[in-house]
Amino acid sequence: MIQITKKQFIIIISIILIIVISIGTYLLYQNSFSDFDYSDLEEGQNILENETSTSPNDISSDSSNLQPSSSSNELIIVHITGHVNSPGIVKLPDGSRISDAIDSAGGTTAEADLSPINLAYRLEDGQKVYIPSLQEVKERKQETTSSEDYISQDSGDSVILEENSYSKEGNQQSQDKININSATQTQLELIPGVGPSTALKIIEYRNTNGKFESIEDIKSVKGIGDTKFENMKEYICIK
């Protein structure tokens, strides 16, 4: 009969326990694996694929929504003059209106008259906008029945373009000249020898004394003598 020591007995028991535990673990794993529902896995994979897959058309559509418009970062430069608090050059986003240019120029002064201005007019790069005064608009209404256009795209010494600055009775010669009874400061400065200071004096004289009865009456304006008048007379009219 084989004699087993205590130490050998413990080793044998340990081996048997290890074998039993291994077999039990294996059987438990097999039962769990066989009960797994593969349809759930396939359904989950299908859901994941549907959520993550996007057609080329969808990608294009989403990208177009995220992309800024081509003009969103573009600026236009506009020259605004006349009766605004800060006349000069203003930079505006493309698509801005005259009202935006006025806001950028600090708003209008107390003398401004916006009645002939189309505030919703969409501006373009390089244009010039003139904001007239109440007095200027009043005088123009007396001189002409047509509407004024206070916008110019000319560069440099650009004038404020008008469809017709003169009355219907004006002849062809007067249409080629500047009406000293209704011209703005900018227009008066186009007359040879007339700078900003003289132009303001003409307007001040006109507001104080009324319209000029003849082109010679402009010599009553301080600073305009015979010599200067001779250089001006071919370029001015009174109606």
From TrEMBL:
Bilayer-crossing residues are 9-29
GO terms, molecular function: DNA binding
Q: Which GO terms describe its cellular component?
A: type II protein secretion system complex
**Domain of life of the native organism:** Bacteria
Q: Which SMART domains does the record associate with it?
A: HhH1
> What GO biological process terms are annotated to this protein in UniProt?
DNA repair; protein secretion by the type II secretion system
Task: Write out the entry's keywords from A to Z.
Answer: Membrane, Transmembrane, Transmembrane helix
Q: Where is the Helix-hairpin-helix DNA-binding motif class domain?
A: 186-205, 216-235
- Read off the Pfam families from this record: HHH_3, SLBB
Which PANTHER family does the record associate with it? ENDONUCLEASE/EXONUCLEASE/PHOSPHATASE FAMILY DOMAIN-CONTAINING PROTEIN 1 (PTHR21180), ENDONUCLEASE_EXONUCLEASE_PHOSPHATASE FAMILY DOMAIN-CONTAINING PROTEIN 1 (PTHR21180:SF32)
Protein known as: Helix-hairpin-helix domain-containing protein
Organism equals Candidatus Merdicola faecigallinarum
Q: What is the lineage of its organism?
A: Bacteria, Bacillati, Bacillota, Clostridia, Candidatus Merdicola
